[in-house]
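Archive transcription. Copying these from loose printouts into the bound notebook so they stop getting lost. Printout 1 of 2:
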Amino acid sequence: MQDAMKNMMTDMWKGMDSMKGFDFTKNLDFMKDFNASKIGLQILDFQKSTFNNTYNTLVKIQEQSEKITDSLLKDNSAIPAEGRKIVDEWKLVFKKGQNELKKSIDESFNKAESFFVESSQPAKAAK
């Protein structure tokens, strides 16, 4: 067991010796234009666009569901007025929840965006 460990360590050191002449900075020239804030903003913009598209699609599906529900309730005499009133109140609560969710997500995206914008600006000197 000790011989195996010794051989493994010897091989590791040999591998490290061969790395002595290797210049890491030459191979990282692509990093000179690296801007984490810019990349972060691009990723955030993609996520924001994805969320907005998904949200708008779900809102359209909800609107279609409301239209179907309204047409079923309007012509159905078996459903009492109280039942229709409950469904109407439920729709209002649902829309309010949708709007609050959208507002909250938009505020979160704005906070994240401001973080990336602030971090891309050079640090101010301490007074």
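Printout 2 of 2:
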Amino acid sequence: MLSNQRSKFSLPSSGTYLNGAYMSPLLKSVEKAGLKGMLRKRNPFSIAPTDFFTETEKLRQEYARLINVKQSNRIVIIPSVSYGIATVAKNLKLSAGDNVIVAAEQFPSNYYSWSELIQERGAELKVVSSIHGAGRGKIWNERILESINSKTRLVALGHVHWADGTKFQLTEIRKRIKEVGAQLVIDGTQSVGALPFDVQKIQPDALICAGYKWLMGPYSIGLAYYGEYFDQGKPLEENWINRKDSENFAALVNYQNDYQPSALRYEVGEHSNFISVPMMLAAIQQINQWKPAMFRRIAKKFRRRRWLN
């Protein structure tokens, strides 16, 4: 069982903070990493060209470990969920008569891109709702499965619904999606870090997460996983660091048509942020030490004692 971790935070001793679904507090280690990064930028002669790549790669590797991804170059640094979702929307093969499925009242960042896209392409947006009362989660999952058909090109969900906590049965949904040849995109912001998420088991085509909730990081940085479907896609922006051989500063004006391998083409410009990246790295290192499965066991213990609904 995980022991009391209050000493790792600078929260006041007069209360207990539980609302990571709104925004997590910063760990002392994360705060320290951010201050160190600020001081480092104060004297930029200490920042070498290799530093634009080394810490971001450490972050990708640490996050890949958290969500069970074998190739760290499938992990990219993004500024927000909306950025990651818009990247998917730009590269989705969608035609008139096709449909995109979302859950009712899911977070706007995982809705607006699909609303715009279906209007552009003449497709349909299927918004799947549930009932109020007993059996809500079970019925909601059943309705999502029933809504998937041969015209479905994408199902975009949270792992956990941001408003009421419904957990979507992604393994079963993924199985149905494969049968029709569609794509599965998950906004994991409300679960990844607090609940185990296994990319090898669930096999999403994209997993998009903001960093400031259960990943325990700062605001305005997130992480995304993109599968093979997106390997030849187009990024939202054409920045220098996502191009092939960008590590060679002396040759940057030898312009490259090719991108960095796998999903790295999708990283936001200036993703080598020397303040937020080390903060995010410190946060995920701590989560990997804690292990999300431990949080789930604690939550079950609380429910048995009726401390949680």
